[in-house]
């Protein structure tokens, strides 16, 4: 059974990126996942994608009013996957009244092989980031971005009259969502045989139209990633790894799933340390 995807939520505010940066983020190898555009290669990831990314939508947050909250800084969302975020972001993440847009790469191995063999910028820079991480004990994980979550703030029309008013003002509807109304009647009571009676309330669902919130652009807020690491065990032959870095360094790197240790290192950020590493 396929594993549900896991996403890193970027730091709310300035950490969330405009939708226009999608071609620069999806498929990029980033030095610091929490600041993906500070240092990333290749310059044009789409050039190495043979297939267009998979597109999907998730609308369960549109009617949600409360924030996500977790003392463990992670939450499992059915139909979406696991969301994790940095401890410095606090325990709450606000995705209420937002439509989620999903973009995920296809054929990761095919993309990785083509990009690492052909992109000169990758070959000249990324292996040395990996060297810094492993030989200088850098905290950041060098990662390949294989998926992106974007959010779009929306407004749900409360009634058909409000929907008509919004359309008359020139607001373009984005879609509809089922909204459950309060119970309108009760089904006859049932008994479990010992005198306890349960009333089964029926609930009706109506379709409500939602619109893009004014002044709110679509933002990239979370990344699905793979970990870029050396194929060679450094404890066995560090000097050989260093020699390879001086020639065809790209041949010594692999791309694999993030482990629990990797995730812990990413989310247990220290803010200023991450900024210093970005500047290296």
What does this structure look like?
The chain has helices spanning 22-25, 108-118, 120-135, 160-168, 238-245, 260-267, 272-279, and strands spanning 6-9, 17-18, 29-30, 40-41, 54-58, 68-69, 74-77, 81-85, 92-93, 98-104, 143-156, 173-180, 185-191, 197-202, 205-212, 219-230, 253-256. With 280 residues, the chain is of the alpha+beta class. The strands form 3 sheets. Strands 1, 2, 3, 4, 5, 7, 8, 10, 11, 12, 15, 16 and 17 form a 13-stranded mixed sheet that branches. Strands 6-9 form a two-stranded antiparallel sheet. A two-stranded antiparallel sheet has the order 13-14. The longest helix has 16 residues, at 120-135. It starts with 5 loop residues before the first strand and ends with a helix. The model is unreliable at 183-202, 245-251 and 271-277 (pLDDT under 50).
Structural features:
17 strands, 34% strand, 7 helices, elongated, 280 residues, alpha+beta
Summary?
This protein has 280 residues and is of the alpha+beta class.
Number of strand elements: 17
What is the alpha-carbon Rg in Å? Answer: 23 Å
Number of helical stretches of at least 4 residues? 7
Q: What structural category characterises the helix and strand content? A: alpha+beta
What general outline do the C-alpha atoms trace? elongated
Q: Strand content of the residues, in percent?
A: 25-35%
State the low-pLDDT regions, or none: 183-202, 245-251, 271-277
- Percent helix range: 10-25%
Span of the ends, CA to CA: 41 Å
Largest sheet: 13 strands, mixed
């Amino acid at each position: 059974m396929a594993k549900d995807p896991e996403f890193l939520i970027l730091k709310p505010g300035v950490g969330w990126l405009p939708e226009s940066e999608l071609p620069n983020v999806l498929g990029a190898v980033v030095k610091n996942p929490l600041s993906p555009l500070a240092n990333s290669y290749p310059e044009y990831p789409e050039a190495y994608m043979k297939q267009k990314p998979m597109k999907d939508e998730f609308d369960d947050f549109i009617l949600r009013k409360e924030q996500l909250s977790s003392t463990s800084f992670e939450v499992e969302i059915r139909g979406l996957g696991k969301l994790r975020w940095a401890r410095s972001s606090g325990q709450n993440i606000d995705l209420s009244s937002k439509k989620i847009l999903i973009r995920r790469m296809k054929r990761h191995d095919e993309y990785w092989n083509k990009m690492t063999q052909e992109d000169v910028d990758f070959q000249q820079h990324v292996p040395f980031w990996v060297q810094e991480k492993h030989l200088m004990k850098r905290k950041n994980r060098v990662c390949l971005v294989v998926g992106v979550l974007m959010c779009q703030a929306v407004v749900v029309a409360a009634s058909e009259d409000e929907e008509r008013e919004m359309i008359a003002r020139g607001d373009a509807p984005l879609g509809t969502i089922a909204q459950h109304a309060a119970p309108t009647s009760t089904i006859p009571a049932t008994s479990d045989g010992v005198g306890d009676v349960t009333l089964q309330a029926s609930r009706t669902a109506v379709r409500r139209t939602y619109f893009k919130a004014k002044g709110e652009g679509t933002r990239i807020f979370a990344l699905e990633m793979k970990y870029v690491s050396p194929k060679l065990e450094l404890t066995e032959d560090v000097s050989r790894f260093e020699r390879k870095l001086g020639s065809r360094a790209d041949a010594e790197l692999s791309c694999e799933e993030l482990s629990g240790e990797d995730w812990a290192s990413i989310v247990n950020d220290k803010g200023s340390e991450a900024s210093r590493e970005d500047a290296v």
